[in-house]
Amino acid sequence: MPRIGQYRKGIAKREEIIEASLRVIAEQGYRGATVQELSKAVGLAKTSLLHYFESREDLLVEVLRRRDELDSAEFEGLSPEAGARQLVRTVRQNAGVPGLVELFVRLSAEATSPEHPGHEYFVERYAAARAAGAETMRGLQETGLLPSAADPECMAAILVALIDGLQIQWLLDGDLDMGGTIEHFLSVLASASGSEMSTTPGAPVRG
Amino acid sequence: MPRIGQYRKGIAKREEIIEASLRVIAEQGYRGATVQELSKAVGLAKTSLLHYFESREDLLVEVLRRRDELDSAEFEGLSPEAGARQLVRTVRQNAGVPGLVELFVRLSAEATSPEHPGHEYFVERYAAARAAGAETMRGLQETGLLPSAADPECMAAILVALIDGLQIQWLLDGDLDMGGTIEHFLSVLASASGSEMSTTPGAPVRG
Fold first, then answer.
1. Distance CA B72, CA B83 (A)
2. Nearest to A123 among B105, B160, B173 (CB)
3. Of A44, A201, B131, B161, which has the maximum CB count within 10 A?
4. Nearest CA distance, A61 vs chain B (angstrom)
């Protein structure tokens, strides 16, 4: 069955390109994300790379999707409070890969346009992030870490927006402590509910 | 003094172009923001338009700067609580001009790159927004509308991030109520401090 073999090889090559691109952008920054640089990293000609993806944007969306999968795996089976702590950890890790943060910020902004190849990905990603966030918020509320006046769905949209907005501010001002700011936000909500998050208290210190 | 006269005419023309561009983008959306469309709107040739601005990006930054001035004027002399209510109003108004929201989202993302002509504008804008926000947060804290555990500087970065992040979500999902979400955020903080914001209570309803 040569055709199935070919197909499998194609899938494997696609995966290899996505993995290599994720690594290149994480290590060399967003400016390394040209088709030329990415092709070089996987040892392919420019035209060959675009044989596996419809466009550069198409490949970049797959890179973000892969990162989502890796990040999501860290949240599996966690309690709402542990999930909130893991979120802070994920955001802190992001500060170590500015190229991926920039990729996300740039692509999410461009993809607000319905014609962008990444539009559907982002629409679905945000809907899923809000749904997962609402689940966590309901859990935090049940354990007294979120004021009872708060609406879990709405707080989820707020948390997601907060992460995105902080990324923009951080790219413009590297002294901003993204993880510490989110930690502070969660601890203010917890203390407002008369509880305490088991994270470092206090406001983040600007580096 | 013909040279000063020329200079004044140049300034006046620049202002006219900025005003017209703001109107075109507000009315026709971000896609109307091509040099061609903007030139047509002010009755100039493409090359003449670029005689007044170094680039399209340069003009678009000035459009955002003009909008900031118009928005800022609405906050003058307001108490912290009235300022918070005005913020909700401003965000609600933004939902009526998606083109300007898209312009802001796209340009702020692109301008995180230090080479972008708008980089300095955004660095300064965010520093100023956080400073003004911290002032408001301190005022809200004094009047019991923000929990005492909250750090005003940090809450200001959070509020600014929240507004930016919600814009992205709203462009991707028009049912999201940006103003209502921010109102909910402020009212949760107020109720967590044992007070009540004099705004509509409860969670926003998705349209």
1. 10
2. B173
3. B161
4. 16
| Contact partners, residue B151, CB within 8 Å, separation at least 6 | A184, A202, A203
- Interface confidence (ipTM) of the complex: 0.91
The overall longest dimension of chain B from CA atoms, in Å, is: 65
Residue A159 to residue A47: CA distance in whole angstroms:
41
Q: How is residue B61 written in tokens?
A: 């930054």
Q: Decide: A164 and B168 in contact? Cβ < 8 Å.
A: yes
Q: Could you tell me the two tokens for A142?
A: 């049940």
Summarize pLDDT for A21-42 with one digit per residue, the tens: 999 999 989 988 888 989 988 8
Query: How many residue pairs from chains A and B have C-beta atoms closer than 8 A?
Result: 154
Q: Looking at beta carbons, which residues of chain A come within 8 Å of B160?
A: 165, 169
> With contacts defined as CB-CB under 8 Å, which chain B residues touch A111?
172
- For A135, the token pair is 């689940």
Is the pLDDT assigned to residue A2 strictly greater than 70? no
Contacts of A169 (CB under 8 A, 6+ apart): A176, B126, B130, B157, B160, B161, B164
Cα of first residue to Cα of last residue in chain B, in angstroms, is 59
The token pair that represents A148 in the structure block:
């009872």
Give the model confidence (pLDDT) of A94-124 as tens digits: 999 999 999 999 999 999 999 999 999 999 9
Q: Give the residue from A90, A91, A51, A67 showing the smallest Cα distance to A18.
A: A67
Whether residues B161 and A169 touch (CB distance < 8 A) is answered with: yes
Query: Are the C-beta atoms of A20 and A41 separated by less than 8 Å?
Result: yes
Contact A151 B105 (CB under 8 A): no
